[in-house]
Amino acid sequence: MMKLAIVTACPNGMVTSVLCARLLDAAAQRQGWSTSVEVVDVQRPERQLSQATLDDAEWVLLVSSTPVDMQRFVGKRVFQSTPAQALADVDAVLRRGAQEAQVFVATEQAAKQAPRIVAITACPTGVAHTFMAAEALQQTAKRLGYDLQVETQGSVGARTPLSPQAIAEADVVLLAADIEVATERFAGKKIYRCGTGIALKQSEATLNKALAEGAVESAASGAVAKKEKTGVYKHLLTGVSFMLPMVVAGGLLIALSFVFGIHAFEQEGTLAAALKTVGDRAFMLMVPLLAGYIAYSIADRPGIAPGMIGGLLAGTLGAGFIGGIFAGFLAGYCVKLITRAVKLPQSLEALKPILIIPLLASLFTGLAMIYLVGRSPASPTSSAPWAPPMRCCWASCWAA
User: Fold this and answer.
1) Torsions phi, psi for 67 (to 5 deg)
2) Is the pLDDT of residue 241 over 60?
3) What residues make up the domain containing 141?
4) Do 84 and 183 share a domain, yes or no?
5) Active-site residue, from 20, 123, 194, 334
6) Active-site residue 123, yes or no?
């Protein structure tokens, strides 16, 4: 009975790796072969095949589209294939492997330690460029013989998160991001920054520049890098990226309510009315989210509360998206100003982010939205909570 070791690895996630492994294992079992299977998972190295199991196998079938440590297979008959080939015809891959597998010999280049790089890709929407840049970097790294691990921070959060061990062993950290990425876990490591577009179109140059030009960021240099990477456009895109899921969810829920009839939601108590209500409430949160995360991009977490309050006021006062954008930038820079200007004794410093900054920034942003963008408070004799809208001060100045 032939003994076969199957090792699969795919950079796009575990699904393809597991699918290839199961199909190959089933096909080998049908031929009466004895198999040992490993699905490469950098987060769980304990699951890899032991050296004794590899030594016992007659040959190794390696199905991979990402760099794999080949030193484990020195002296073994190895046949390499790709996930696409394996999924297309597993029986053909097994036949070719049994016939064409050759003893793997460690060359001088393979024996030499390959450069180790960890990378993060992130774009404002977390949909297209995030994963396209990651794939381009992985394919180029494989061609160059580099050891690369990529964490994609997409719209559903971080996929394939970098392990502390991978970060510790890396020669450099590549941040291919168009939005802010937390760098606390990379303290003391060399960091190279670029956009996802550069990483996608010039992946080889990006990897080589990262190895050659990566530098440890001190607090000062980190601040400079952050300043260079931020701006009005980037803050706006950060807000949009957090708002998009609410737009999609609200829009689809409202669309579902129309399935029962274009006016079905007008009948209270029906499912259509419930779907329309939920969708409308989701849309009500769009502008607050936009403003809140614009402020977050500018001033970090202390900016969220005043930004969302300003965004909610923008929606309530009929200022729409333009008002929300104004509120986000106003709240963000207001928080930054308060953070720098307000000096407290050390014993009271802890109150700044949870009391002083939210209170003062929310007060200033809220009043600015009411008196500059929206409506004025009603007079004491008015029965309505708000008086008719006053003319915006900008419009008054323009008319003057």
Assistant:
1) -60, 140
2) yes
3) 116-217
4) no
5) 123
6) yes
Note whether 186 and 287 are same-domain residues: no
Q: What is the pLDDT of residues 277-335, one digit of tens each?
A: 999 999 999 999 999 999 998 988 889 999 999 999 998 888 888 999 999 999 999 99
DSSP conformation class of 266: G
Active-site residue, from 10, 20, 194, 334: 10
**CA 175 → CA 59, 142, 168, 188, 294, distances in Å?**
39, 19, 16, 15, 21
**Residue 210: closest CA among 245, 173, 182, 185:** 173
Residue 24 within any structural domain of the chain: yes
Please indicate, yes or no, if residue 383 is contained in any of the structural domains.
no
Helix extents (H) in the chain: 14-30, 51-56, 83-88, 90-100, 108-111, 129-144, 164-169, 196-201, 203-213, 219-229, 232-257, 271-284, 286-299, 304-316, 320-341, 357-368, 393-399
pTM above threshold 0.70: no
The token duo for 285 is: 């949160």
Q: Do 369 and 267 sit in the same domain of this protein?
A: yes
194 flagged as catalytic: no
Give DSSP secondary structure letters for 65-127. SS---GGGGTTSEEEEE-HHHHHH-HHHHHHHHHHH-EE----HHHHSPPPEEEEEEE-SSSS
Beta bridge partners of 37: 6
